[in-house]
User: Fold this.
Amino acid sequence: MNQKLGRKKSLSRKVIMAGEERCVYCADPPDTLEHMPPKTMFKDRYRLSGMEFPCCEPCNNGTSAADLVAAFMSKIGPLIGKGDWELADNHRQAWMLRKKAPGFLEELFGPKANSEPILFKTDGGVLLDRVQIRTGPIGSACLDVFSAKLGMALYREHIGTNLPLTGAVNAMWFTNVGLGQDTADTLLSILPGLNALRQGKSDSLGQFAYRFNSDGVGMFSCLASFHKGLHVMLFAMADPELYDIPVVIETQRVTRPGGLLAMMPKPARPHNWNIPLLGTP
Ligand SMILES: [Zn+2]
Assistant:
C-alpha cells in the first residue's frame, strides 16, 4: 500500500517537474514540489490534489513558517471553541509553530500580547465575551510572505507561466475581523470567476476558495478565503507599470519573485541555558 502511494506520488512529481527551469517563487532551478495552499491549511491535513508547483528547496523550506502561521490564523475565530476541529488542528500544529516560527504564539497570546477584551455580537444578536488579539511583527511578516506566495502560485496556475522576475504581487491580508462585508462585496463584484481545489466530486469550498479575474496573459487578481479566519486580496502582474492598481488599504505589500526569503522574520536567538555553578562565589 505504502509502496503504491509512494510510486504514484513520485510519478506525478516527475510530471510536474519535467522541463521546469525555474522555481515558482524565484530565479533558481526547482528541486522540490510546493503545495499552495499547504496541506496544513486543511482539516486533518487532508488536501485535494492540484495546485502543486516546482519550487527550489530554499524557498520551499525557508517559507514553511509562513504557511504554518497562515494555517493557524485561518482557523481562529470568535465562534471557534472547545470541541471544534479548528481548535484541535491548531493544537496539533502548535509544536511545529514553536519550532518554525519562534515567538509567534507568544506575540498573540503571551503576557505582552496586544489584546483587549471585547463583546462580540453574533449574527443572531447574541453578545459573547471574547478577546481580540492583534497580529504582531512575526505573524504579520509571515502573512505578507504567504500572501505573496499565493499570488505567484495562482498567477502560474491561471496564466500558465511563472510570474516574470520583473513582475510583482501586490497583496493585502485580513484576519477574521479585518474584512468588512461591504468591502468584501465591493471586491467580489469585480471578480467574476470562482475556483477552489477540485478532485473528483470533492472540492475545497468552505476551506479554501477564491474569486478571481485575469486577462489570461499577464494579470491575475483574486480574493481568496481560507476558512473563516484569513482572507487575501491580491494582484499579480507581469508588468506592474501597465496596471493602475487601486490602493485599498495602506498595509498592502509589493513583492517580486526572489523577494520572499528576505521578508521572513529572522529566527529568534536560541536560549542559552545557564546552570549556576554550585559553590562559586
Ligand atoms: Zn525559489
